[in-house]
Amino acid sequence: TARDAVGGNIELAWAALRDEAAGCTRCPLYKPATQTVFGEGPVDAQLMFVGEQPGDQEDLAGRPFVGPAGQVFDRAIAEAGIDRTAVYVTNAVKHFKFEQRGKRRIHSKPGAGEIEACRWWIDQERMLVKPAVTVALGATAARSLFGRVVTIGRERGRALELPDGGGEAWITVHPSFLLRLPDEAARAAEYARFVEDLRVAAARVG
Ligand code: URA
């Protein structure tokens, strides 16, 4: 594994993994995307957040969750009492998948094949970081982590066990889901529920 390759130095192993991922051609998404958006955060983080894939702004910045969904994420974790600099934040898929419409790049959902191809990277991130608790933000992250289709409504709000011995996992909605809700009252209610999910998951870390 990446960890063995550098004699157990996890920081070095992580940097090597990130550099290797920068040249990833495991699926076709690397061609139109600007760059690989790898995970970020301390390699000894106890809490890991997994999103879907980088969006337009993340693709340009090379960092996860810095665009509109990232702003919701930042506000929600802060309200849940979580320090972003202390947690590891990554995505199930590491290249932006989009459709070009004029000058705009419109997000497309990653498919099963892309999630599968990219699991190579997230599995190695998880093996290095070994978080006590992993939070799946939305169905794509949950699908990647559990290797099956997951219904968020049925599985959110309780501690789950990752199938590969990777510790505890919690499933909640993706922050983009909140941005898409047209009704303001519904959005406020769903946002509060999201914050509560994050608070409960974070409280599981010793
Ligand atoms: N949405 C995600 O799932 N991840 C990001 O990094 C940005 C938006």
Automatic annotation (TrEMBL):
Residues 38-199 form the Uracil-DNA glycosylase-like domain. It comes from the Bacteria. Keywords: 4Fe-4S, DNA damage, DNA repair, Hydrolase, Iron, Iron-sulfur, Metal-binding. Transmembrane segments: none annotated. Belongs to the uracil-DNA glycosylase (UDG) superfamily. Type 4 (UDGa) family. This is Type-4 uracil-DNA glycosylase. The chain holds residues 258 to 463 of 465 of the full protein.
